[in-house]
Structures are given as C-alpha cells and as structure tokens.
Amino acid sequence: MKLLEALHQILPNDRVTNNETVLDQHSSDESYHTPARPDVVVFPENTEEVSDIIKLAALYEVPVVSYGLGTSLEGSMIPYDKGIVMDYSLMNKVLEIRPDDFLVKVQPGVTRKQLEKELKSHGLFFSVDPGADATLGGMAATNASGTTSVKYGIMRDQVRDLEVVLADGTIIHTGGMAAKSSSGYHLNGLFVGSEGTLGCFTELTLQVHGIPEKTMAGRAAFIH
Q: Which UniProt keywords apply (predicted)?
C-alpha cells in the first residue's frame, strides 16, 4: 500500500500500524452501530505531524477520522469509508494553565478527569461533564453537555480558541484569549460540534471556573 509507505516516511514505525487488533480497536465506538475497520491507524504527537498526515490523505484521496477514547454514542468515529484513523492518545498534554485568567490550553487527547486533576491544585474546575471520561477534543467535536450545563453552559460556551488542521493541511486558529470579539466570523461556533467534518483539532483553549465553596443536591421522589 503506497499510503502506508508514505506514512512511514513521516512517522516512526511504532506510530503507524495496520495490525488487525489495533484496527479492530478503532473500528467502533460505544454505540450500537456496526463496526468497520480503517486501513491504517496513526498516532501523531504534535500539530505538524497531524498536518503532514492530512496532506498525505488529501494526496491519496482517502478519508481521515479522528479518534479520542471511543466513548461516542453516535457512531461518528466509525470509519465506514476506511482510510486513516488518527488516534490522539499521544497528544495528551495540558500545555498551560492561567489561573488568573480562568483559562487552560490543552491538546485534544487530554481527558476530562486528567484536566480536573491538574486544575484542582489551582482551585479551578472544568464545568462540562458528559458522564464519560471523554477527551477534550472529542467533547469539542460533539459539543458535549451534561448535568452542569444549565448553570455553566455547554462545550461551545467554554471554547475560546481552537487550533485546527483543515482538509488541505493548513493550520488555523478560530479565536483567541478574549471572551468576545466583534470582528469576523464566529469560527468557534462553527467548528465546535462539527463532528470532525471541518478539520482536526490539535489544541484547545478553554474557559474554566472556580471551585464553588458550597454545593447542594436535591432529590425528588415520585410515588405511583
């Protein structure tokens, strides 16, 4: 396969594989949809490698599917047209925490619980909780929400900036550090929830919140 050979030119051998077991692991999510194997699975470590992979995919006219932890319930990450599955498990670093600005910058493979652990020592927490310990990249791609969304908002409300690799390998940013900008298109709103159809997320700048001093829970019982 020429594509496989080309991928080996830009990534080490241990980060490009068509091993059947690995293909099976990336053939499904947690939904009921029928699994389908990709042709190859790659494990990039940085934005430049993602861009190089996308450029090769465009050259060979094969699809690319982004893969976090496979916790999706919609079947959006199942590679029915085969091609390349891009696994972000090695892009899992919390790059910067800015407690005074209530901002954090992460790679897409960082999980929700991993981020919570990093933020706790700063008296901060990330508000979106979809239930599963999903990756932040996957949560942005699906515009995740959860039980805290009524108070804090959904995933789209927390994203200040995305670094995105487009279909031709171009790298763009969709926003910035500011909470609001009146110039240009609202690209954050466009890309968050796009399910990987517009580009691959390689960095996310997210709004975080102070840990509440008190929490309260209530329970309602309905007796027939």
A: Flavoprotein, Oxidoreductase
